[in-house]
């Protein structure tokens, strides 16, 4: 009788302990708004083989940036009706989530195929209201980097601002909190650590590498050395 009660107490204590551990793991592993994501990286998606989030070369202009999600804001300004500022939670919770498998090609000769998950830039622009005459979207980053893309490309191709890759929240090295998934454009268009999106009417804006001689269009189906 006494032994039965003791065993019962031990089982209750073990159960409470297990629940506490699971709760702590969940708090540590998940950020608000991405709690539906599995904790482990996926390496295949709908029959496609994926690269690993470790298969990247880190050669950003000033090394990895460590952005604090709780103080982070994304500003949307320029040729818009309403300038907007979003917190990390607002961005990941308010806008619909999309996933797609896209390959990043760096001009240095490596590539990585990843299942990206994010929000559509055009959904953000819709809320800000793009003014007539705008034709360019400029992405600025925490490290001072920038690059631009045509507005029609951003809208027609459903270009994503990704917060996760292979079902894992972007690591700092890969651009946390957001990297642009500039499909069919060279890696230098894939701005990491995005902090500001400026809608512009300056088609000739040149970003960090573009102002140092990289092709402004950045299409991977064109010759990289073919200035344009
Ligand atoms: N903010 C920022 N974004 C950036 C860069 C950078 O230096 N700073 N480098 C670009 C280049 S040249 C490439 S190829 C890709 C590479 O992504 P990765 O560093 O995650 O491998 O990031 C792009 N985005
Ligand atoms: Mo690159």
TrEMBL record:
UniProt xrefs under Gene3D superfamilies: Oxidoreductase, molybdopterin-binding domain
Protein name as catalogued: Oxidoreductase molybdopterin binding
Domain named Oxidoreductase molybdopterin-binding: residues: 67-209
Organism: Methanoculleus bourgensis
UniProt-listed SUPFAM superfamilies: Oxidoreductase molybdopterin-binding domain (SSF56524)
InterPro entries on file: OxRdtase_Mopterin-bd_dom (IPR000572), OxRdtase_Mopterin-bd_sf (IPR036374)
